[in-house]
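Our collaborator T.R. sent over the components below with a one-line note: 'Predict the complex.' Nothing else. No constraints on interfaces, no templates requested, no preferences about which chain binds where. So this is a plain run: every listed entity goes in together, and whatever single assembly comes back becomes the starting point for the next discussion.
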Amino acid sequence: MKGSFLRKNGALPLILPTLIIMAVFTVLPLIKGFILSFTNANLLNKSTAYVGLENYKKLFTDPIFWLAFVHSLILTVTAVILELVFGIILALALKQKVPGIKLFRSVIMASWVIPVAATAVMFTFMVEPGYGYYNILLKFLGVKANTFWFGSLNLAFPLIIILHLWRNVPFYGIALLAAMQAIPDTQYEAAEIDGAGPIRSFFTVTLPSIRNMIIVMVTIHVLWTFNNFDMVYLTTGGGPVYSTQVLPVYVYQEAWTNYTTGYASSIGTIMFVLLMFYFIAYIRVYQQQEG
Amino acid sequence: MNKKRLFVAVIAAIGIMFATQSIFAGGSSEKSTTSKPASSSSKAPAGGSLTFWNMPFVTQEVSPSYVKNWEGNVKKALSNYRVSNFFGPGGYAQLRQKFLIQAQTGTPDVIEGLLEDVPVYAQKGNIESLNAYFDSWSEKGQFEESTLAPLTINGKLYGIPYNTNARGLIYRTDVLAKYNLSVPKTWNDLINVARTITKNSKKKMWGLFLCTKVGDPRAAQEFISWYYQVSGGKKLFTVNGSDVTFNGTVDQFEKILSLYKEVFSGSDSAIDPAERGNGWPSEDPGYVSGKWAMAPMGPWLWGRRKGNTAAAQILDKSKVAPLPMPVGSAGHYTYLEVKPIMMNAHSKDKAGAWKLIQFITSAKEMAGWDASSGGIPARKDALNSPEFQGPLGSWIKMFADLIPGGIAQAPVNWGPVADAELRAVNYVIYGQKSPKDAAQWLYDTINDIVTSGKIL
Amino acid sequence: MITKRHRKTIRITLTYIICVLAFIFFIMPLLWITYSSFRSPSAILSGTIISPAGQYTLDNYRTILSVTDFPVYFWNSLRIGFMVTFAAMVLSIIGAYGLSRYSLKGKNAYIMGVFSTQMFPIVLLLIPIYNIIFTMGLFNTALGVVLGQLMLVLPFAVWMLKGYFDNLPKEIEDSARIDGCNLFQMLFRIVLPISAPGIMVAAFYSFVVSWGDYLVVSVISQSQKTATLTLALQRLSSSLLLRWGQVAAATVLTIVPTILLFSFVQTRLVEGLTAGSVKA
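Returned assembly:
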């Protein structure tokens, strides 16, 4: 009996400590969040009433919700794809054994280790008209574009994407490099003997070997980008007008500016459901390919 | 092989560190959760310990040397107590969030905040009504009535003011003289004077600056100042018990939004179009580095003199006038800021907390604090103290003269309203909506906020 | 016909081009920040690149280091960061190894359970997190902060290491098992050395998340005992008298130790261990 249980659930004792921590900090708060989304909870009011699907009905007719939803999708998809492409290119460069590369590997991480709050303040400083780094740089290059970039209707959203790239690409680079370093040289040698050039051996040797790491990085960054609120909140506050309004910022404003916890929870629940669908689909694909 | 050993050694070192830390942390957690009032702890002085969360002390709005000084003074004045020198998280949004989450732990005992925080905390039941304490305080007569009224909701006084300010239009006397201009009195004057400066300086200097970033507190305060000019000093909301009446009209909003549209339009616009969507982090440094000639301002700008001779020279050539008003309006009005010191309703030692509040708002401490950070003391005797003679005194006086026209915000949750106002401003300055349409949108949105109960 | 030598030249040239571009995009802004941290306020606002010699100053650093309890916060960040990293590595290595090598009924449900915090807006979890930590009696303790941050770190660390372990050849382990190694001997002698690069990335990730975390610390910490550097940075950047020079100096002081740490990890451990294991 015991033997068969362990054979079927051999991983359980090993993963149990992690599960306990996550359960304490996750399951209870999440259940509470779901319940709140069916109420008119307000942080400042003591009485809370059950309102059924009222919040969700309101949600589907709320134009700001849909706008934020679309922005969130565009931001996540664009940022993650670009991060992956540039991350692979960076990892390939970092892998080369050329003089000075070790030093470069150490400094390239710098943008990723800065707390997001500091990144936001730094970039606000650097896009200031007149004395900001980017405007000085453009003036130096002879481009006349002196403007507060976060205040530009056309530039604010791309700039938010650039901010994500600036912060995350180095991490992709280092993580994918780690995966590439685990590929034995013999595999490349074998490919070369088969007559494969560098491009073909990238597709036949490198890419399949770092596939797992790519999946891991993409999964986590989809969740992270879709859920990230401080990068937008601290730089544009969702403006100008609504041009950078995204779901997590909307949740924050509902929860901590309007104090309408119930409504905020319903947005949070929708986000949860969306990400859950994405995650399930991803795991399916991953395991099918594996099996 | 050697490197493997290094790896193991590093892991082991971190492990040992972790183990010692968790033992240490476990021990101190016990201390902090059981350290209820004074008597239970043998180490603490007879009166126990007190915590004061105060944003200006951690963000260096008050000079660090003054804070050191304050810490020394409080030790002497409240010798029975140990007052923590951890003054809470920085930033009012962070302060508010943390206080709403954990006020019931009894920490902090005393909290500083914005006028806009008072109704929120009061609604949540997190702050103590101070009437009984204040009424029996012999020094209560020193406080200006105009600074107490805004902190009183339904007859209950929820905070003791330590600082107040009114907003005026700061301008460069040298620039106006150079182009032979006079100080703007109306909105039309303001636009014309600013455009002339922009034009004559060949855009080396812009006439004006206004904050327009969504979520920027200063931008919301500027908007409401313009509102008071249009409404003739009438508040945007009237609060009666739990009823909130919205007094704004589409017409009023259209006037204000037209002003915002005008200052950004024209080939020599009053404000640099590149500064659209920018906020307070740009307004003050820009003025003291000569990027613009005028801006709505409060007395804090004085703090920029320190360690910056160029800024000091520009401030020496600056004066403050009442904010311009629309044609046909009578009387100058401005946003009135009052900063309260509040008591946590869950404090474990309210008598001690009150003693701390009395110390913070004593004439001497208030004068020192406001002199260091550039605010107008809420007490008469503090305003008459030696700190406020000389150059600082004349600077402060320019703003103190504007206080009679100051209107304090109604006690509601301003967050969603401020957000809507600035979205409307954005619609207009980015040419997405006409002032008329944006005004209608703003009116509908605020109505919606009021009826849906987001306003309290 | 491209010869092998040509190919090498192209490879090196391309590498340097990418590195230069990456340097301009990722590092130049930081150099500008570093440069700004040595300038006086009027020099920063002048809009010029070079300013007169008298306008360079160490005042920004002097202020930060003398008045903001910076050393205290620095030490807190460091020890909390190490504790989180250590705990996260222990938990995630065994957890991920289990998920990778052993069967588990409803494995996907467990993985999703581990990930579910990352799918819900964290700002809505602040109050529950506070309640839990407070009930556990860990409010305002380093252990409380560590537990809170583990929640942020663990999903990714487990997921990443599982992916890494999935890729490793199982043959060596099988032969080790036949040789009579138990689970922990196998982990320490075989799995850890081979997967060092992956573990290092996961460890570094844990450290950086802890180092940069503001939300959890802001909820759980309320004294110098547990407040970290991000809190200090937050304070400086929300001041009404925002001084760019001081913010820049504080940012530099936050970055430098992590870069030093990473370069140590990178050169000493990752390369050494990989080289050793691949040859073996």
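Summary for T.R.: Residues 244-279 of chain C form the longest helix (36 residues).
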